[in-house]
Design goal:
The protein has one helix and four strands. The protein is of the alpha+beta class. The radius of gyration is 11 Å and the shape is globular. The structure holds zinc ion (ZN).
Length: 61
């Protein structure tokens, strides 16, 4: 995934839309960036995954 798209998605999904948590790590949430996907989850159960274009493939809320 290119750096600009990665930055865009991190901004877009930085705050959990359900509980407002903006933390990742230490069990508070996860942020995974790979070549072909972006994944962000929150301790409350919210999660989103997109393809390399930022199109949502999975959203769980
Ligand atoms: Zn949350």
């Amino acid at each position: 995934m290119n750096a600009l798209k990665t930055f865009e998605l991190i901004q877009k999904y930085s705050d959990c839309p359900l509980c407002g948590n903006d933390k990742v790590g230490n069990g508070a949430g996860k942020l995974i960036v790979e070549d072909d996907r972006f994944y962000r989850s929150c301790k409350c159960g919210w999660e989103v995954e997109t393809d390399e274009q930022g199109n949502e493939k999975l959203i769980n809320q």
